[in-house]
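User: Here's a chain of 154 residues. Predict its fold as tokens.
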Amino acid sequence: MPVNSHDEDHEFILRLFGSSKKDKIRRSRLIFSDMIMNNKDELKEVGVNYPTEVKFENTINRLTAQADPRQIERVVRGATFDLNLIYDAEKENEIVEDFKLIKEGLQLLEYDYLGGHGSRGYGKVGFSNLDIKTVVGEVDNDIFDNCRSMLKEV
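Assistant: Prediction complete.
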């Protein structure tokens, strides 16, 4: 079934990312942190002086044969970033279901790319060393272990 608006997404998606639909406003259960490059010094040691690079490309108008040059700034290959994702566990009986969707979303993102120009290899990401911890409150150990093992599959 086609979705015409983000507010028409599946209940599981709305649960994680919230909704701004009038009279059905929901806050997100997920908070994504800013990601700061964590291996800039390591990259400098192998000769990378800047964390981003500018690549120049051309498109050719097929009707006029006119070139349309452009430049794209991208993060250098091999850059790594720390990701902190905060999940607000509202209902204990929905945690495993939510983490299954988070795991699938991260896996799909690894198969796809961030931003534009993915066919050129831009925006390719991978996740590693994913783990969880409780910051406030308590979660049943079985639920916690189940969620942790799901993230290890990414």
